[in-house]
Structures are given as C-alpha cells and as structure tokens.
Amino acid sequence: MSTKFFTNSDQNTLLRKFEGVFENNKDIKIFDALVGFFRASGYFSIRPYLENVPKIRILVGINVDKIISKYQAKGLLFQSDSQQTINEFLNDTKADIQASEYSDKVENGILKFLEDVITKKIEIKAHPTRNLHAKIYIFKPDNFNEHKSGHVITGSSNLTDAGLGTTEQSNYEFNVLLNDFDDVKFASDEFEILWNEGIPILPVDIENVQKNTFLKADPTPFELYIKFLIEYFGKSVDFDPNSITDLPEGFMRLSYQIDAISQGYDLLSKHNGFFLADVVGLGKTVVATLIAKKFFYSNGFPSHLSTILIVTPPAIKQNWKDTCEVFGLKTVEIVTNGSLHKITNPEKYDLIIVDEAHKFRNDTAESYDQLQRLCKTPTKRFLKNGRRAEKKVVLVSATPLNNRPGDIRNQVFLFQDGKDSTLDIANLQSYFSKKIEAYKHAMRIDDIPIAQKQVAVIYEDIRKMIIEPLTVRRTRTDLMEHELYKKDLDSQGIVFPQIEPPKKILYELDDTLDTLYDYTMRTLSDEKEGLKYFRYRAIEFLVPDLKLKYKNADMLSTQLAKMMKILLVKRIDSSFYAFKKSLHRFLDATEIMVNMFESKKIYIAPNLKVNQLISEGREDELIQLIAEAQGTDPTIQICTPDDFESEFYIGLKRDYEILKKLVEDWDKVDDSNDPKLNEFIKQLNGSILDKSTNPSGKLVIFSESKETIDHVSKNLRKQGFEKLLSVSAENRDQVKNVITENFDANYKLENQKNDFNIIFTTEVLAEGVNLHRSNVIVNYDTPWNSTKLMQRIGRINRIGTTASKIFIYNFYPTTKVDSDIELKKKAIMKLQAFHSALGEDSQIYSSDEEVDTFGLFDKSFEEERDERLVYLMELRKFKEESPEYFRKIKNLPLRSRVGRKSDSLDKETICFIKNNRRDVFYQIRKDSSYDEISFIETAKTFKTNSDENSVGLHDEHHKQVAMAVKDFNEKLQKESAEQQAVDVSQSPAEKGALAFLDAFLKFDFISEDEAMKIKAAKRSLKLGRFQKLQRDINKLKKSTKNAGLTPTALMDALISIIDKYPMNIVEDEDINPVVTIKQFEEIKPEIIISESFVK
User: Fold this and answer.
1) Interatomic CA distance for residues 425 and 375, integer angstroms
2) 612 pLDDT band (50/70/90 cuts)?
C-alpha cells in the first residue's frame, strides 16, 4: 500500500523526507517554511541540503496569545506592534541558543544559521497578529509550473530537532507529502499572503542576539570568576544595612544579623524551615523576631494577617514576651514546650519559631509528635493553585546537635518529609539510617581517638549534606575575620572576648578518702564484684508468664539500672555531700524492696514515673502512687516472692548488704573536711576572684545538684562570701529581677546593682538569661553533656560584655572518675559530634582536648573560619568599588566560558552546573575521569587577577562539559527511579503498617471518606511525613491479636489514629509513584559557567 502520509516511526522522519526531496530534485530554487516554532538547532539539521538553494524564506509564528493577555491585563486593546514582534522572536531565538545541546557540532550549526541571516542567505519574518499553528514546507523548482510542480509537506512537525526527528526522544508527528501542482500552488499563495504581512528580522537584529549569548560573550578569566561568585551567592550578594529600619531604642543595627535575616528568610522560602544556629550569645532571639516581622509583611499582607507561634521553654517565655512587645510583633502567641497539647486550632499559625529546638530531638517523645503534627498542618491561607500554604518553621538553637545523628534528623523532619525532601538528598530516612548505624559502630570502639575520628567523618558528611544548606550560623571567629562585620562591630563598641583554654582545678584526696573513693567506684561500676542494681530490675526477673505482660522487660531493666549507676557516679563527681544523700536514698529504696519480699507483697509499676521519682529521691511517693494506681493500671502487679526467679532476691539482698557497708563507710567521712570545697575556697581567694582574671568581681557557678549548691553555698557564707545568690527551679521566678539587676550587662547602667557578686545555680539558668557582667564560670561538676556546656558558657559570652577574656574552671579529682563507665569518652564524643557538625570557637572541656574549631561552612577540619564568607565579602567589596563593572559582569549570559593557561592543569575543564536543588562543580580530566569538587576548591582555581588574558578553548572542552551534564542528568534520573521504587527501601515496620492499612481497604462496610483517609495515611507513611504514625498503626495492629476487637471497632480505632494527623486528603489521588516527583523542567541541570585549562 502506498500513502502520502508519514509519521516519524521506523526512521521515517521529516528530516528523511527533506533529504529525499532535495536529493531527487536538484533544481529547487525556493524553499519556504511556515512554522509555529523555530529552533536554530533545527535549522542546523537541514542546512546541508540548503547549500545550493538560492532563495530561503522562513516565516515564524510568535505567541500572540501571551502578548494579547498582557495588553488585556492593562486594560488596553491589542494592535500589532512591529518592534514587539521582532523582540518576541529574538528573545525566543536567544533562549533557543542558550538551551541548545552543548556540543561543538550544534554550536557550529547555530553559528552557521546566524551567519546565513547576516549574509542574507536566508530571510526570516515573524508574523505579528496570528498564532501560526500550521506547519508548511514548500519546495519550488526553477520554472515552477504545472509540469514542474515541486512539493509541499504539511502536518504537525515544527522546524525543531524534535519535529525533524533528530533526537532520541522525538515527538510523535503526523505529516503528508504532496506533489500535485494545485496543492503546491495553493500552499505557495497562502504563504505569500502571510509573508507579506510578516515583520522582517534584520541581520543587525540577529547580530545583537549573537552578542548576547554565550557564543560571543568572550569574558576575561577575571570577569568569569566574578560571574561565578555572583551566580553562586545569588541574593546574598546584596547587602543593605538600612533594610531593617524599625529597631527599638537600645538595639544596635548589626550587619551580621541583617545578613542572617535575609538568608533565613530565603531558606524559609526554599525549604519551609531552617536552623538559626548562631553561637550562643550573638542575639538569635532578635534575629528570629525580625525574620518573623519580615515574614508577616511578606506573607500576603495586608489581605492576610499572619499569626506567629513561638514555642519556648518555660524559663525563657517572659524573655520572648518582652522581645515581641519591644519589637511590636503583634499577631504572636507564645506557648511553652509542655503546653503544645492545648493548641486546638493548628491551622491558625503561619510561622512557628521553636526556641532551644534541641529539646525536640527525641522523636519518641509525645511533645515531639505534637510539635511535628503542628508544624505539618497547612495554614488557613490559600495559594493561587488552590492549595493551602504550608507552615514555615524556624528552629532556634546554638546547639541543635546533641550526641546522635538522629538528633539532627528528627529536627529536620519537623519541616521536611523523610522520603521527599527539598534537599539534594531526597530520601533522608535512608541517609540517616546509614549514619546512625555508623555512629553506633563508632561508639562501640574502645580506642577513644579512633572513635573520635570516625564520629568526625560521619558528622562532616552530615554537616555538608544536611546542616549547611539548612542553617544560618556565624561564630565569633567568623565575625572578627571579615572586614564588613568587624568594622561594624568595632564602630558600635562591641567586644568579643577571647575564651581562654579551660583551667583545671585538681582536688586531692587523702589516703583514707582515696581508698574509699576507689572502692566506691569499683562497687558502683564493676560488673562482677560491684552493685547489680537489682532494685531497678524487678520485671527482668519475673517468671516467664508474668514477664510477658511487659514489653522489652530486659531492655528497660538494663536501662534503668544503668541510669542509676550513672546518676551515682555523677553525684560523687558533684560533691561527696550530694553523693551521700543519693546513696542513702538508694539504700532506703533497696531496703523497701527487701521488706516487700519479706512481707510477701511486691508492687510492680512500670507505667508510673519511676525514673523521675527515683532520681528525685521520692521513693515514698512512688510506693504511695503504686497503691493508688493498682486498681486502674493493668501493668501494676502485686506479686509474691514465688513470682520471681530465685536469683532476684539473692541479688537484691546482696546489693542491700553492699549498700549498707558503703553507707556506713561514707557516714564516717566528715562533711566539714571536704577536699573539693576546701580547694574551691582556696581558688576563690586566689585566681578566680583576682582582679587580673575577674575585674568585675562577678562569678557564675554551675552544678547539676541542688544538694551540692545548698551544701557549698552554706559553707561559702561561713567563709565570708555573703553576696552569694543560690538559684534553683524552686526560686528562679522569685529572684528573676534580682538576677537581671546584678548580672545582666545589657540592663540599664543606672539600674544595675551589686547586692550579689556570686551566683550559684542549677541548669535553670543555663539558657535564656544574661549573666555577662561576669566573665568567669566555674563548673563545680561536669554536666557530661556538650549542649549544657555550650549553654553555660553562653550565659557570659554574650553581646554587651565588656570583658576582654572569658575564663572557665573545671574540677577534677586526682583519681580517675571517668575511667569506670567511660563518662569522659561519652562527653568527648558528644562534644566532638557537635563541633564536627556545627563548629564552635572555643574549647569547653579541657585545654588538652582535641576538638576542631571551625565555622559552619568550612570545608576542611583544619580551617577555623567560614571560607565561603571570604569570597562573599570579596564580591561585596568589588560591587561597592566597581558598581558599573559589577553590573556588566552580572549581565553576562549563562554558559559563558573561557580558556586559561595553568601550571598544573592540562586539557581539563571545571564546570559549574546547578538546578533548583543543588549546585555541583565538576572537574573533568583529559583521560575522561571526573569528580565532583567543592565550592571552595572551585573558587580557589577560578580566582585570578584582572590582568590575566584568556586563551582558546582546548579541543576537549565541549566533550568534557557534556560529560558533566550527562552525569548530573543520570543522577537525577537515578534519584527519581529510587523515589518511584521507594518500596524497596521500606523497613519491615513500614511494610507491616502499609499491609495493615491495605487490609482495611478490603472491608465491605468501608465508607468513601474512610477509604480516602486510609489512602492519605498510606501516602504519609510512604513519604515519611510523621514519625509516630507508623508506630501508632503497628501498635494497633499488635493489640488486635489479643484484644479481640470487631472489624467496626478496629476501623473506629484506626480512624481515630489517622484523625490526629494533618493528612493531605485528596479524592482519587494516585499514591503511586510513592514519592512526589518534581517535574523534570523544574530540576533539569543548567550550565552556569565553565573554564578549560591548558599548560
């Protein structure tokens, strides 16, 4: 069968038809093309066949609808505009050139097209008033007549690569080839009419296009270096110190804070949330408040009035109230961490600020679940696409990382979905699972230096991939290193004191006490000869039938016993007085259990707050609570000795005897002869209060134990230290104003007092309070937690201090308290993890601790400052000194490139590629190997002086850039494939929860509304949207085995779980693919710039 129609199947493409027509009709004199879309690269494909054609005309349609809509939006009547028609075509041509395949072949073809227009080999016109949907290609021979009819092709194919069929993924086209004279003449006559209506595109117009594309940009190496910085830093280049105009009286306009506001707001827009993690004392509360204010006026104001919610620890709630009032932040509500359950209208809030966000690092805590559901509930504000806007979240904390990769993960999941993040790593759940396993492995290594190195490697990657793109952070070192910041600080009289290496205070134990101390430590921690803590392991030794009632009985018992062991060791580190108090309570608690055994009535109550009651020494209250709750709590059991394995009572009795002897020995120790206290008093009378160390005479002392504070304070007053204020949770609110008046350097000078010079406090003053009239901190006991250490020092290292130096004193016994249960190892590991991930500019454990000090964005462990800031400040300085030159370079087209001489690189190319998710820098070598390199490495290579001349691009340049683009594309495709096949990475728990939900969808009685909710829950599980949802569903699944619930009761129970979570319930929404895949157009790579090097 013969037909005049053809598609582009089986290589029967439009280009092949062109080839056939030209090859068999050597006398074609005129080639006319009428197309809706024209691409220079498409012209390149047919150019060889046009070499001997004398007359070539191309008439192109423009997007008239778009132009008309612009006119109508302004209330104007559209009339054809010649210049606008030309501009529309030229802009399309320029965009086509900029987006064309990056190859020398295509570029040569485009250049040939431009040359043909300039030399008038071809004529081009654009039609000003009609959308030309027709595609017509007319081939007219010399002496065109009814006997030499020529040919016409019409159909769907535009003069583009896709229309011609020259690409692997060409369009499906449907065309017809006609050679009847009447058909050709009719097409030719219609073309002439339209051609005469068209607007000519002149050679000079095309020359201007050429000049404004990368083909003719020809930048110098210096110009391309500056262009590289401009493209990388984006809006961060702009700095307007006057952009914040409404600061209240008494608040300074600080350039680094203005930068933080701008950067933070950009991160909110890009990722829906970020960490505001400037180091302690740099004014994060002020920055967060100003971001909130900017958000209020940018988030649909005035038609929409945003409501801001601030979540804060109780201790600093008043501070937030005062700050919001001073800054005029009106539509704000403040709630404490423990009151999230009281929020009944989560849709009300547009922005959530979480202060001391590291407190929400545990995803199994109820408060975390409440906050995550709150953060992921859409707002009341509707977007143009009809969807409700998502909340924005600011996590404020100088210490967002405590000791586990899971800490960062859980906080990120407050505003990101686990398997569909806006970061380069889409599946954060999988990423963090690997890091958590690696961290656990490192923690099991006995060799501390090796363990430290492994932890540092883990957190370096987390810092690079997760923290850096989500964090605004500056250290004091950063601020003092960069001229713009330092000049600003100096002009306003702001001093950043130097933090001296921590000083050790060693207190010596006499022989008797030293022997008792060593014996005590062995007794507390020796696995064979020491205490076994049976008092807190009762459910572990229940007989099997009764033990089944308690989930994870062995693990819980082990954890509780370990907690008690650590508590006692920490108490002996705090003070012998506090240790003796805790030891007596432990003996009493053990004796109670022994007595219960002897009375043959033993209470088991795992659901009561046993940990808290034990740690607070409230054993009597615990027994009372057991008695009160046994009628309503099914986990409470009243047992007999026969309900326990025989070794339990034996072990309990052994512990009791050991404790009794230990208490007897410690009761012989005279509290008035306390070596630690004696050494402290000696140091107070020496260096600690010496004017050379402590010019203000103010001192801050921290201890975790209130009993230690009471004991030491009492004895200090006896020694004449009368101006001493003791603070704990019991009296903090009552002495709040006293603290401010006596220790806050930012308090009005005329209102400052000196009624107290020494403040001795528990952790209640470790956050949210200014104590910086002092420049000396004494850690009477080590908190064994890097977060607490950071927070303590931040009380005195704050903006407003006048001290030139900060001093930190730590106590150490001469014996090795840290070798028994590896507490020192844990503290160093936590601190190393924090330093490696976020950086800090001081040592806070001991002067010989190997902790790296570096800014957040440094790329190597040796560097102490934020190297990216160096380049940002260089760019800002260039802009300020050469504004016109800066603008010229900024306007250079993307894809600009340059060839350079190099001493070390030969036939290599460095290419900057990006999309809306990530910036990537490739180094491609002449052997075709390549690596991704860092911004810093790229900037160091690109950096040059303004007098360097360029050289020609080497012959491998295009090939090497194409390799980088291909690798980037392949990674995008792999990521998309992994997201679509996310079932492969599902954990057993996730699979179980999904299967359980699928079973509900098969119920005959299920309603449409219930089905939609269950499908939404499945989608949330697959996206990793809520941490607790999966656990709740599996808990319900497990309970069905024993509860004997009816299907309808089960459905009610499931829906009640789902209703707790803010699901995106959409009717008939396809939940496959599992993860939302961003349109390729939104994430495809764009070549920014490239440089090639030859020796």
Assistant:
1) 21
2) low
Cα R_g (the chain), whole angstroms: 37
Mean pLDDT of 62-88: 52
Residue whose C-alpha is closest to residue 622's, from 578, 585, 583: 585
Which burial class, exposed, middle or buried, applies to 46 when counting CB atoms under 10 A from its CB (0-12, 13-18, 19+)?
A: buried
The DSSP output letter for 119 is: T
Closest CA to 26 of 136, 126, 141: 141
For residue range 786-829, list pLDDT tens digits in order.
667 778 888 898 888 888 898 999 887 765 444 444 334 433 43
Beta-carbon contacts of residue 393 (< 8 Å; ≥ 6 apart)? 272, 273, 274, 351, 352, 353, 354, 375, 414, 415
Residue 161, Cα to own-chain centre: how many angstroms? Answer: 41
Bridge partners of residue 81, in order along the sequence:
none
The span from the CA of 360 to the CA of 371, in Å, is 8
Kindly report whether the peptide bond that precedes residue 606 is cis, defined as omega within 30 degrees of 0.
no
Angle 913-917-922 (CA atoms, 0-180°, nearest 5)?
25
What's the rounded Cα separation, in Å, for the pair 19 and 109?
17
Q: How far apart are CA 28 and CA 23, in angstroms?
A: 10
Token pair for 816 = 């090795």
Can you read off the two tokens belonging to residue 923? 């180094």
Cα 984 from Cα 377, distance rounded (Å): 29
596-634 CB burial, b ≥16 within 10 A, e <16: bbeeeebbbbbebebeebbeebebeebbebbeeebeeee
Residue 947, φ and ψ in degrees, nearest 5:
-95, 5
Q: Say if CB 588 and CB 619 are below 8 A apart.
A: yes
> For the chain, what percentages of helix, strand and coil (3-state, to nearest 5) are there?
50, 15, 35
Percent of the chain with pLDDT over 90: 31
Tokens encoding 97: 């050139």
Query: Encoding tokens for residue 878?
Result: 């260039």
* pLDDT tens, position by position, 389-437: 999 999 998 765 555 788 889 999 999 998 888 887 778 888 999 999 9
Q: What are the start-end ranges of the H helices in 13-120?
A: 14-24, 40-46, 64-73, 82-99, 104-118
Q: Which two tokens stand for residue 54?
A: 């004398």
Half-sphere exposure for 49 (CA within 13 Å, toward CB): 21
